[in-house]
From TrEMBL:
A Pfam family the protein falls into: Glyco_hydro_25
Stored SMART domains: Glyco_25, LysM
GO biological process, one term: cell wall macromolecule catabolic process
Protein name: LysM domain-containing protein
């Protein structure tokens, strides 16, 4: 079937300005997955301040509304308590579609059997309250290494994040970017492609789920030997634009951090006498968003970093976050610059 476009949002988008859901719909987006809660009522007790209004706005514009809960559980009983907190928020809003469990926190148990059981308990509690359209969100690597897919109950819709040209596995929904531009919403937005019309509350299109999801490929121009940095450039963006691995650019130019300056000339190709390539570090559990995150940055990626560092997760990269990042970099033998580039991100996640 035709790929279905959707967004996922939280209060961060509202903080940049009112969302015009009619413009979102007119741009071809069909569904919105909206953040509701985190933790349990006796624990974190976090309710996204824009949850209800975002659901109302999406519904009014004709987008199918879904909701998600950020999972923090430490036991099966805690998972059920988290589900009850989520249910309380759902009852106050008119969510039309699926309810997702966002499973991505690094500090969750590394025992696959236990974490799978916790997710199942969360889904059971939702089903008992009448919320039978259940889904699970996670990064590709996290989902494949921390959960046992064959033991997941409640027939979950699988929503996978991977910011690449290919997802590389079966999924119902693919979050393929965290920095898209969407008409009607100010700033970066998470965007998704669904391969089943379940997201539109229709019948499942199972043949679509069996396909390995791929974005259309664009023709690439020949890679130049060098590149002169322009204002606003980042290494990852330069690499993506010119078809050169981000880590290779760093190694070719002897860069010890992700910091580059306007006017700086970067080598993009190795000399004829090729040195032995160093081993590149493994993939992050949560996909690297593709841009530097530093003092002054705001949003979901900053909140993820703050959670991983164990500090107040307000989504604003200020003095406290800067100090925590530098301390973390020092402890882990990284370049201490307070900037979260790909190397620091991969170590965190």
């Amino acid at each position: 079937m035709t790929e279905i476009k959707g967004i996922d949002i939280s209060h961060y988008q509202n903080e940049r300005g009112a969302i015009d859901f009619d413009k979102v719909k007119a741009a071809g987006y069909k569904f919105a997955i909206i953040k509701a809660t985190e933790g349990s009522e006796s624990g974190t007790a976090y309710l996204d301040e824009s949850f209800k209004s975002n659901v109302e706005g999406a519904n009014k514009a004709g987008l199918v509304s879904h909701a998600y809960h950020f999972f923090r559980t430490v036991s099966e009983a805690d998972a059920r308590a988290e589900a009850q907190w989520f249910i309380k928020a759902l009852k106050a809003a008119d969510v039309k579609g699926y309810v997702f469990c966002d499973v991505e926190l690094k500090s969750l148990t590394t025992d696959e059997e236990k974490l799978t059981a916790y997710v199942n308990a969360f889904g059971d509690e939702l089903a008992a309250a009448g919320y039978t359209r259940f889904g699970i969100y996670s990064g590709k690597y996290y989902f494949e290494s921390r959960l046992i897919e064959l033991k997941l109950l409640n027939s979950p819709l699988i929503w996978i994040a991977r910011y690449n040209s290919i997802l590389g596995r079966n999924a119902d929904v693919w979050q393929h970017s965290s920095s898209a531009s969407v008409p009607g919403i100010a700033g970066d937005v998470d965007v998704n492609i669904a391969y089943t019309d379940k997201v539109l509350l229709g019948k499942a299109s199972e043949p679509s789920k069996s396909k390995v999801s791929t974005k259309p490929k664009e023709k690439k121009a020949a890679t130049p030997d060098t590149y002169t940095v322009k204002a606003g450039d980042t290494l990852s963006e330069i690499g993506a634009k010119l078809g050169v691995n981000y880590q290779d650019i760093k190694k070719l130019n002897g860069l010890k951090s992700d910091l580059i300056l306007p006017g700086q000339k970067l080598k993009l190709k190795k000399s004829a006498a090729k040195p032995k390539a160093p081993k590149i570090s493994g993939s992050a559990v949560v996909p690297y968003p593709g841009h530097l995150i530093k003092k002054g940055s705001k949003g979901k990626d900053v909140e993820r970093i703050q959670r991983a560092l164990g500090i107040n997760a307000d989504g604003i990269f200020g003095k406290q976050t800067d100090a925590a990042v530098k301390a973390y970099q020092k402890r882990h033998g990284l370049i201490v610059d307070g900037i979260v580039g790909q190397e620091t991100w991969n170590t965190l996640f």
